[in-house]
Amino acid sequence: MSKSLISRRPVIRRGSSAVDANSHEKPASELSPLRKLGWKPFFQQQLSLDELNDCEPVKVMAVHRSQIEVRGDAGEEAVLVNGPLFEDAAERPTVGDWLLLDRETRKPQRRLDRSSLFKRMAPGARQAQLIAANVDNVLIVSSCNHDFNLSRVERYLALVKEAGCRACLVLTKADLNDDHEQYREALKGHRDLPLVLVNALDAKNVEPLREYCRSGETLALLGSSGVGKSTLLNSLAGSELAATGGIREDDSKGRHTTRHRALYEIPDGGLLLDSPGMRELGLADVGDGLAATFADIGALAAKCRFADCAHESEPGCAVQASIESGALDERRLRNWRKLEREIHRNTRTLAESRADDKALGQMYRTVQSHARSRKSGGE
Ligand SMILES: Nc1nc2c(ncn2[C@@H]2O[C@H](COP(=O)(O)OP(=O)(O)OP(=O)(O)O)[C@@H](O)[C@H]2O)c(=O)[nH]1
Ligand SMILES: [Mg+2]
Ligand SMILES: [Zn+2]
Question: CB within 6 Å of ligand 1 — which residues?
Answer without folding.
Answer: 172-173, 175-176, 199-201, 225-231, 244-247, 256-258, 276-277
